[in-house]
Sequence to fold (243 residues):
Amino acid sequence: MESIPLLRYMVEAGLGARRQVVAAIKVGRVAVNGKQAESYTMPVYPQADRITFDGKPVSFHARARIVLMLNKPLNLLTTTSDDRGRQTVLDILPAEYRGLGLYPVGRLDHDTTGLLLLTNDGNLTYRLTHPRFELGKEYLVHIEATLSRQEKDLLEKGVLLDDGATAPAGVKEVNYEPPYNYSITIHEGRNRQVRRMFAHLGYTVKALKRVRMGNLRLGDLAEGSFRRLSVQEIASALRQHKQ
Ligand code: URA
Fold:
């Protein structure tokens, strides 16, 4: 029988993303065979050890990893539930995808469309969202203006927003999907970042759509549709960074 690190056990059992699990172990909420776990690297035997979280047994039934790519329509919240009863991205999935612990990887604004991943895999979420990995996210933008050379340079080099200067970005003029007239690739994930970058130059973003995360492309997936990613696509998403 093989042992695995406690952290991996907890993440694969669906108890949260790595950072949350590490924090829970550090504050003593996890016990192995009745003894408080001292380190998240400690080896555990999934079939033999009794792991508890806040005193409740953790069941580890090698849950299938699911990764869905959704083309998010307008007016859906990127959360798993809303206390004001508004529709979330999970509400548009068929019933068979409920109760599997799926949640969105990162977030898109209510008024943004496009590529959103949903998964029950905390490790994948960590690798795709932690700033350390600098995953490139490409957005199509519609503004009612043409950027000057200086404005494009500014966006690319970094603009000073309320929460600090933005990291280098890539900006291109595009015409393949009207009404979008620019594409911008950023490597950060700050709140409403793209809208705020354009607002900094005095432009209102009229429509915003994410089309790529790393080398995962939305392609021709219709708005409101989703598809399950293959093992190869997931592996490739994990391999590359900084694109
Ligand atoms: N930047 C934004 O302004 N909004 C999003 O939804 C994503 C990136």
Remarks:
- Residues 108-109, 112, 192-195, 208 surround uracil (CB under 6 Å).
- The longest strand covers residues 112-119.
